[in-house]
Every structure is written in C-alpha cells, then in structure tokens.
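I had to read the description of the data format several times before I understood it. The format is easy to grasp once an entry is in front of the reader. For illustration, here is how one protein appears when written out as sequence plus structure tokens:
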Amino acid sequence: MNKTQQVCILMGTYNGAAYLAEQLISIENQSHKNWRLIISDDGSTDDTVAIAKSFQEKWGGDRLEIREGPQDGFCKNFLSLVCDPTIKADFYAFSDQDDVWMVDKLSVALAYFNAENNVYMPRVYCGRTCLVDEKLKVIGYSCLFALPRSFRNALVQSIAGGNTMVMNQSAKDFLEKVGLVNVVSHDWWVYQLVQGVGGVVYYDPEPTIFYRQHDASLVGSNKSVMAKFERLFYVLNGRFKEWNSINYAALLAINHLLTKENQNTLITFGKLRGAAFKDRVRLLEVCGLFRQTWQSTLSLWFANIINKI
C-alpha cells in the first residue's frame, strides 16, 4: 500500500448526532492514515455540526472541513461534494454519518486500485456490508452479488451503497463533467455513469463496514423479507418506473459520453419503456437487462409485462 496516496472522504450529514461520533472515531482509526474528511451538512437541527466541530478542533481544519450542503436531499448533498472540481486527492470515498468502518476499510480499497495498472480507467471500488443494529450487534450481511457488473445491470439495479464506494480521479472527472444532475441516488448514478462510459466497478464480497440499521436510516439494507415486499410494492405502484424515468433522462442528456455499445443499449431501453406489450418482451431480451439474482430478474420481467419499467 502506498502511504503517500491521499483519500478525501466525502460525508453528507443531516441530524446524525446519535451516531456521528462513532463513525468519526472509526475514520480516525483507519490503518491508512493519509486521509482528509469533508462534511457537508444539510441543515441539521440537532448537535451534528457541534459534534463535527469538536472533531475539527481535535484534528485541525486541514484534516476536517465542514461545509453547508445544498439542502435538497441526500443525493444532491453527496453529488455537491464529488462534483466539486476544487476537491482534489488521489482517491475519494463516500461516507454515511451512522456507520462504523472496519479498520482496514481504506487500505483494502487502495490495495485494489494499486493492483490495477491502468490509472486512466474510471474505477470504483464497492462491496458487501456487515449489517448491525443500533448497538453494533451483527444481524447479518447484505446480499452477495456475483454476476458481472455492467451497464445492462446498472440501468435497473443499484448493487452497492455509496457508503462502500471509493473511486479514482478518472471516475471523479466524469462526475465533475456531468455535474449536479437530477437522479434517484448518488450511488446508483455512480454505478450507471462509470459503467456507461466504459469504466470498471469492482464489487468486493468481503465487507469492510458495519452498516447500521435503525429507524432513522434514509436507506437501509434490501435483504429482509419486508424489503423484498417493499420492492415489489414499488413495482406495482409505479415507483420503480418513476425512478427509471428520472435516471433515463439523466443518462440521455449525457449519451455522448457513453460507449457506442451502451448508447445502443440506452436507445433500446427507451424504446422498451414506450413499446406495446408484444414488443416489450422482445426488446427486454434484446436489451439484455438483468438484476443480480434470479428472483429479482424474475421481478424485472414481471415489471416489464405490466409496463412498469
């Protein structure tokens, strides 16, 4: 591991006082020490900013910067950081306010990047998480995804939380170029964009974070039975189709940045979404869309049948 490589950690906060200190301590305890943290607070009304400032006093302003977020939702908050061209480092890591990082979180990600020779290839490291309750008791693991990462998968599924993501400068360059777009979530967008432009998204099957599950979580694990029913409900009530419409519009606007193959896939995806039933079945096969498990791919076909993609 190259100890001189700096990681800039990008954290979005909003009323996270209950767990923020534990997360900041886990960042402080990272085995890779060359990091700095930027916190973008989205208008917290609790002690979040006060806690952040107490760590800033301890670490110094060069180590921890605190900003005011755009106050337009968590997605725009994170994108406001990663799309900022004035933020420079060797690598960039998203961080939630309520997780706890394992001590080797950053060093494992950097080991992946340093094993790859092409530094100009947009790359993102992400992975599985260890699920814990409010008191950090292990309650399971997030789904293990083993199928290939591709644009055909990214169009209809987000495979990893932003809290696991670390990216190189080339990936950030594309995000800066695109800017603050209207998309469903920052992590799904990173997956779509990086795969779309011909980059690589690596999924680590070994967790490096404790992903806290609690009532105030904006986004939780999708592994539970309740979560599976919730996803089915999102298909039936049109939420999944609405999400796809939002992301499709954003991708269409930057279609010129995509590889030729992915441009064609996006065009077919658009035709599929507006086609009659007899054509939708054929176009789904032509488009090659898939999700990471056979059950969720089956639900994708069901969504296509009832015109909810």
Observations:
- DSSP finds twelve helices and eleven strands in the chain.
- The domain at 7-212 is CATH 3.90.550.10 (Spore Coat Polysaccharide Biosynthesis Protein SpsA; Chain A).
- The chain has a mean pLDDT of 93.
- The CA atoms of residues 15 and 46 lie 5 Å apart.
